[in-house]
Amino acid sequence: MNSGLISIELGVGLLGLIVLMADLWIAPAHRRYLGWGAAAALTCLLVFGLGTLAPQSGTGFSGLYVVDPLARFFKAFFMLSGVVVLLMTVEYADRLAVGLSEFFALTLFAVTGMLFAASANDLTMMFVSLELITVTFYVLNSFQRGKLASIEAGVKYLILGALASAFMVFGIALIFGSANTTQFPELALRQRELSGSPIFLTGLAFVLAGLGFKIAAVPFHGWAPDVYQGSPAPATALLAVGSKAAGFVLLLRLLFGAVPQIATEWRGCLGGLAVLSLLYGSLGAIPQRSVKRLMGYSSIANAGFLLLGVAAVSPAGSIAVLYYLAAYCFTVLAVFTVLCVVMNGSDADDMADLAGLGVRSPVLAAVMTLALASLAGVPPLAGFIGKFLILRAVIAAGATHPGYYGLAAVAVIGAVISLYYYFGIVRMMYWGGESQERSGIAMTPGSGIALLVCVVGILYLGIAPHGLLQLSADAIAPLQPSGAAVVLSEHLGVVTPGGASR
Amino acid sequence: MTPGLNHYLVVSGLLFSLGLLGVLGRRNLLIIYMGLELMLNAGNLALVSFSRFNENLNGQVMVFFTITVAAAEVAVGLALIVALYRKRQTAHVEDLTTLKF
């Protein structure tokens, strides 16, 4: 047992407890500074803790928990989004009637759950870390108890979340029964015999259904638009970025770390779900008037894109998923930070409230436009490189099965539809007529920092993708059967040693 | 005749299906929640029986985690349903109509 391995998680969890305790001695008027403190401390943990002090690799707790490049990639991802969400919450503070410190603490607890999920190497660990995230989100989503919409969002997430957990527990029981183990490496050793066992396959399907709920893929997407619309904006942002990424890291580990052979057999099914999510999300977003609800549909469409990368069942596909998630993180956080600032004072988030933003605050409008263009996949922004990598991985996989060309075609169609609805928001900001308010928009320094981080991320990942690509390639090395490093070629290409494909 | 693994699994499968029927068919949030608990416990029963017949204690450890998580979920969930009832004077799913397209 090596407790040093979980020092980062312990640190973040402890930080949450400290915030709760500090609340007792701080006057209500000053509680928002707790958010500053928590964000600063989380940044320190990210830079010093994850960067240098914590163990860089290792396995602990009888194989339940693993620290490898993949885990470290996602830990950095989750902590960064945690920092931005905390800063966003400071901006949002006036609209949370009570319990601001609790909101900070719960955000930190959710991040703790995500950090554990990034390192989960066992079905038990996966279940417990996912539940830590889900139960925290029940509270975060329904945090504005005075608003019926918020409570309703919480209840809907509660019922569907608990349903997903029930499926996951039953699936884990079936896998445990047929394989007599819950650890991913041991499952990988025995997958040849297990792939013939109907009980095992049923269990795996149930567990994948539970993960499908987290990533909001069709047909487990029903909650996303409602919950995105009703929840407080910072909670929605964390849900869109952190919760989805936690689902994807577990999906990658389970499919490629534990059952790569079955993943190859089921790629048609994965591709089908990806196409359905893409089309459903893109088409559903078109008539929306609420920006947060639109982001809910967009989140389903993006889950479809990411699933395409998973369905490619290749190192290039997994690298593309990691890159796409990083790009998605910066863009979505930028969108929600702008929403937090602009919608100050009003509870609604109707698209019409954005009208005239181009005049009222050119900076915010420019940031929003940049983020939406990145989401739509306009070059040279981060989202474009993500979509490009996914498409290329899918087309490259076409050599193994012609159906992949169809998937690529649908992905292009989805991307074109998404241009339409994202630019609907841009049109509203610049050409949406005069707004009733002509005053400028005040912004706290925290939001300024958050937006700066997001904009730098969007531009940097779009213009100089090689750094993160190399990181992603290193990160997926543990998922390779031989553990061999994945080598990047020039022109963003991916070469596997010996040309062996997974 | 002593009950074997299959008997336990059939009961567990039945419990799971009954719970799912309750979740899909009932309209009252509390009953739906009871159905969800039934489904979770069906998973627990399967885990314990596999654990017993495969002679591997890991399954029983997993059950402890599931029970703990379910307890936390119930604590939060019932609080939420009560908050909804106070606000809306109802616990029926048909009345959850604030958020829709």
Characterise this structure:
The complex is a heterodimer of chains A (about 500) and B (about 100). Chain A has helices spanning about 5-20, 30-55, 70-90, 100-120, 125-140, 150-180, 185-190, 190-195, 200-215, 225-230, 235-260, 260-265, 265-285, 290-310, 315-340, 355-360, 360-375, 380-395, 405-430, 445-465, 465-475; strands spanning about 60, 65, 485-490, 495. Chain A has about 500 residues and is an all-alpha fold. In chain A, the strands form two sheets. In chain A, strands 1-2 form a two-stranded antiparallel ribbon. Chain A has a two-stranded antiparallel sheet with strand order 3-4. By secondary structure, chain B is an all-alpha fold. Chain B has helices at about 5-25, 30-55, 60-90. In chain B, α1 packs antiparallel against α2 and α2 runs antiparallel to α3 (about 60-90). Classes of the chains: A mainly alpha (about 500), B mainly alpha (about 100).
Lay out the secondary structure.
The complex is a heterodimer of chains A (502) and B (101).
Chain A (H helix, E strand, L loop, with lengths): L6 H16 L9 H22 L4 E3 L4 E3 L1 H24 L7 H20 L3 H19 L6 H32 L4 H6 L1 H4 L3 H18 L8 H7 L2 H26 L1 H6 L1 H19 L5 H21 L3 H28 L14 H4 L1 H15 L5 H16 L5 H29 L13 H19 L2 H10 L11 E2 L5 E2 L7
Antiparallel strand pairs in A: 1-2, 3-4
Helix pairs in contact in A: 1-2, 1-4, 2-3, 2-4, 3-4, 3-11, 3-15, 3-20, 3-21, 4-5, 4-11, 5-6, 5-11, 6-9, 6-10, 9-11, 10-14, 11-14, 11-15, 13-14, 13-19, 14-15, 14-18, 14-19, 15-17, 15-18, 15-20, 15-21, 17-19, 18-19, 18-20
Chain B lengths: L4 H21 L3 H26 L3 H31 L13
List keywords for this structure.
heterodimer; A: 502 residues; mainly alpha; two-stranded antiparallel ribbon; two-stranded antiparallel sheet; 21 helices; 72% helix; globular; disordered C terminus; B: 101 residues; Helix Hairpins; 3 helices; elongated
